[in-house]
Amino acid sequence: MNWIAFSHGAALCASLIVTIGAQNAFVLRQGIMCSHVGKIVLLCALSDMILIGAGVGGASVLVERYPTFVHAVLYVGLAYLAWFGINALRRAFRPHHDALDADGTAAAPPVQRAWPIVLMTLAFTWLNPHVYLDTFLLIGTAGAREPAGARLAFAIGAMTVSALWFLGLGYGARLLAPWFKRAVAWRVLDGAIGSMVLFLAAVQLR
């Protein structure tokens, strides 16, 4: 194992992934709700591994040759982000699942079915332009600059940090659960997520 290349991949992934983007916000929200966290963490980590491996393996060259495909994926992702952001803002202004109990605290959210959550996780990963930019292009391009014998270690370093991040974000979010016993906390979170997602979509729309 080339530990220098491993550290390069780990450091780059850490600098890119530790931001509250649309995907991370979704993982955080589900983690607070303690809803299908294991499935979400596994899907996000595996998807990152696939994209990082593809990028470091040279798939980023194909993107340069087929810019039309990149733009098509980008706009599909932006449309989905906009849809999610609008729904989050609607929840913030007109909450429907955070009904108050008599003591003023929020009732437990309804049990979520697995398949819709799995599909939403896949959508936030594979239709998210930032995921491709970070894992597929930036990490992939940086890994391609490593010596041929060090690229695997670079990719493993990036994958390791990605897996640890999603584990920490998904299961660590439970520590925030006491703060979200009141409906107003959910409204603030949804408002912040909705505003951020719409801002990201607007910035990328050009």
Supply the key terms.
single chain; 206 residues; mainly alpha
Largest sheet: none
Strand content: under 5%
Number of helices: 8
- According to DSSP, the number of beta strands is 0
Shape: globular
How large, in whole angstroms, is the Cα Rg? 18 Å
Report on the structure:
The protein is mainly α and 206 residues long. It contains eight helices and no strands. The chain has helices spanning 3-17, 22-33, 37-65, 67-93, 114-126, 129-144, 151-172, 183-204.
Write a short abstract of this structure.
With 206 residues, the chain is an all-alpha fold.
Layout of helices and strands, plus pairs?
Blueprint: H1 3-17, H2 22-33, H3 37-65, H4 67-93, H5 114-126, H6 129-144, H7 151-172, H8 183-204
